[in-house]
What does this fold into?
Amino acid sequence: MSQNPEPSVLDVFKSWLTPWKGKPILIPELDEEAVVAPTSIASIPDQEERVDEQDPLIGIALRFPWFLGIPLGIALLVQLRFDDTASRPRTLEEGLWLLVGFYLLAVAWQLWRHQKGDWLLTSPREIEHKKDTLAFRPVFLVAGLFVGIAAFYTLEGNQFTLTNVALWLAALFLVVYGLWSPGNIWGERWANLRARLQKPNFNFSISGWTLLVLGAFLVAAFFRFYRIADVPGEMVSDHAEKLYDVFDVMNGEPRIFFPRNAGREPIQFYLVATLIKYFNTGYTFLSLKLSMVIMGFVSLIYVYLLGKEVGNKRVGLLALVLFGMAFWPNLLARTGMRLILYPAFTAPVLFYTLRGIRRSSRNDYLLAGGFLGIGLMGYTATLLLPVVVVTAFGLYLLHKHSAGVRLQTIVGLALVTFVALVAFLPLARFAYDEPEIFNYRTGTRVGSDEVPLPGPPLQIFLQNLGDALVMTHWDDGEVWVISVAGRPALDVLSAVFYAFGVALLLYQYIRKRHWLYLFLLISIPILMLPSVMSLAFPAENPHAARAGGAAVVIFVIVALAIEGLLSGMATKVGGSTGKAIATVTGVLIVLAAASQNYSLVFSEYDEIYRRSAWNTSEMGAVVADFTATMGSEETVWIVGYPHWADSRLVMLSAGYPYVDKAIFVENFETTLKFSGAQLFIVNPDHTEALDALESLYPRGWVKTYDAAEETKDFLIYFVPPQG
It folds into this structure.
């Protein structure tokens, strides 16, 4: 112990109160050199910094936004309940109100954490107001107008010809080039390319971000092309109609509009014809599927660009990978019908429209118009895309962001419209010549052309709208060919983040009044209108294909919500540790979504489809074997039976396009003229047909074909050669 301990404050105080006991203790002078005062409050280490010095893991745990787990957990539990289509409550009395209430609670909690900075929302990109000089190339523009008039005149008769196609494409090129902003960007690019060719540099480098984007495309390619030959495994009657249209194209009937089966736009048929001609894929289901899967895959470029335009490159990457592997657009492409063309053209039209508005870019407007006009010749539902474009321009003009460029923006809308009309010329001419045929398909759904409306139009519309808006979380419709019928249109995680994304956009619009937030929200019901407007057949709503364009915007919103969650995590935790935690969390989210989407496509959908579709490929294989050994297609017969296999599909599967060998019992006697071997394919329940065949051909014999699906067996009645 020290010999002269330092007196305490109490000792000093007592010495001054009892002077009779001795001299009072004096307070020692302050040694200024021994004292270091803090320069600011910030220099004093807070609790978390002191904890970090002692244990970094505890510091990370203190900063991590744990409260986010509560809304995520609640929403996931509710959405998992919605996903259980067998036992979920379907009415308020069964407890549905309680689940909806918990979902709303989760959203409210998420918004609270958003206010606290735990869950962010990336700000829209800065608007660039550029004054357009309105300079153009009048010679090319006027030439384009005259060539366009000539194209319109020659496109009569619902036939593409070398002349009218050349005129149409020339008109489109001349109009776009005449209006193209006359900057020298292409000259600069050509000069750079020429300089590189003159002094080649073989050094090649690729950034980490580029590798990430390429990796996302590879993931999407796996989901889109994996098992493309056998998922789905069978054609339905719609496929026969499409292959017949392709057969017409390949045999001298290059139509603009194909009136078969209520009418169809032309793009798919020419894509399939190209595959058949140059890649020898044949008149097969695979040809139909490849044409649409390729189109859907290429359009992912614009899903990425749209996400990047709306948010940032991380939003674009998430939108690309989530949309690329989602079962909703994947099935629209795999079914081999025109359905994927709606989202495939929605993505570029929205990208160029939104970028054009943000940058006041005339060239973007021209590209938006080109994609819009061509897209209108893809799938009937794209007829609503112009409404979406007009809505985007209208909302922008109504908000303060357009101040100073409103007239220029109106000119931009006029440019989009004009170029779209030129691109749409072939189908516009057919609509002018044959308005009843062109509008027939729409009229049978919107009006009473086919059946009377089942109720008041407004009531049906509002009910349809409600059903369509909740299809993402509840029920995507009853069409098993193009969806996993009866379940939500999104996987569980995407549905949850979509709900959170909608809440964030709505909240931020109320606070900041940014036009883009409102447009993203309003565009979804507009893009769903082709499904909603099925007033004559409300049971067809929601319809995954007719609402397919909305999927593009929906997954961009999903990506915005996920990116906001990850950014919040990275910001709160801080440093490289925060980025690492956010990255790992993002990877886990993508993996979980990938797992469910994989199961939905390659297990659940595949199983339901095989149970529901007739096994015409197996029947076709029997026919092909028969014609290759002892018979010919002339002596093959598919006996008609209600709600059974389409005889055209059987012959298509056997390799005989445009051959229909359907026959009915009353026509059996017409087969007596053939002396060679004959083959009859009969439904096992068609006892009348079997009795008639045994009576007509007593020497014949019957065999049951053991199909891969238990309920799909069929009978083969073989008639040996006569004589």
In short: The beta strands are 636-639, 662-663, 678-682, 701-705, 714-719. Residues 32-51 have pLDDT under 50 and may be disordered.
